[in-house]
Every structure is written in structure tokens, then in C-alpha cells.
Amino acid sequence: MILSIILGMLPEILFFTLYIITTKDLKNRRILLFILISIVYISCISIIQYVSTYYISFLFLYYIVVKIIYRKKTDIIDVFVTSIACIYLGAMSCLCFIFVKDDFSNYYILLIINRMLLFLPFIFWKKFNFLYINYRKLWNREEKTKKPIKSITLRNISLVGINIFIFVCNIVCIYIMKIVR
Asked: What angle is formed at CA 76 by the lines to CA 94 and CA 152, rounded to 5 degrees?
């Protein structure tokens, strides 16, 4: 359990905390954010394992935590921004799990590679806030200004993307359960 927390949960909690801090350019209450995300993440993983409802519940509980701490700086688009982090985390985990298959002898090596790949996007951490601001501008409806994409189109793309993510996660979880058994 301790190894699972140190090598599994702690890096992922740190990833989600750093992701929201750099994306939204948050300057204060970072330790409180880390603690609350830790509680939400560990409770979600402990209660709901290997099902797509974990991802849904984590996304919304994560949003509620950010909403409680940063009331005025939180928008509904934070759910979609967080889902991008979940998609990246899921993709890196699946990529490393493909190489494990039935032979778990290289599991710890792939786990370390996975954790290094997890923090790879932070090479471009200065771009996160820039992309968030642009996404937020395109999300809001303003008929007066000319935009390259309509806000309703962006909203639909975001909703379809998150639904595809949940569907794929459910399939991957079923596949993992078949292999592990």
C-alpha cells in the first residue's frame, strides 16, 4: 500500500496539482489545493476501482475542490481542461501497460518510465496558461467579436471529446481486468 501511494498516487496527485496551478496561473493556496486533491484522489481510487465512474467522479470532485478554493477563478470549462490532463494520464498509462502484457518482470521499469513521461508536458508549462486563456475566450459567447471557431462548436467538440474519453477508459478498464485475471 505504501509503495502504491509513493509510486502511484503521489506522482499523479502532484501532476494534477501542478497542471491546474500552471494552467490557471494560481499564485496562492497551493498547499491546500494539493491536500484536497490528495483526499479526493485517494478516496476515489479506494472506493471506485477500474470503472469509468472513477474518472467521472474524480473530474467533478476535482472541479468542486478548485471551486471551493478559488471561487471567482473557476469556470465550467475547468472540467474540460482537467479532462485533458486525465486523457494524457490515461494515454501514458496505456502506452506503458501495452509493453507489460502477460510478463510483469519489467513492470517497475515501465512504471518509472511512465512517471517520467507524466511530467514531460511541463517542459512547456508557460504555454498552459496561454492556451487556457485562448480556450476560455473561444468558449464564451461574444457575438460582437469575430472568432475563428464559434463557441457552440467548441462546446460540442469538448463534450464529444470527454464522452469519447470516458468510453475509451471503460473499454481499457475491461481489457486490463481481463489481462490481470
From this structure: 90
Cα separation of 113 and 104, whole Å? 15
Cell numbers representing residue 135 in the block: 480556450
Lookup result for grid cell 474524480:
58
Going residue by residue through the chain (181 aa), what tens digit of pLDDT does each one get?
Answer: 677 777 778 898 999 999 999 998 888 999 999 999 999 988 888 776 656 677 778 888 888 999 999 888 888 888 888 888 888 888 888 777 777 766 667 777 888 888 888 898 888 888 888 888 888 887 776 666 666 666 677 777 877 887 787 777 777 767 766 665 5
List the domain boundaries for the chain. Answer: 2-180
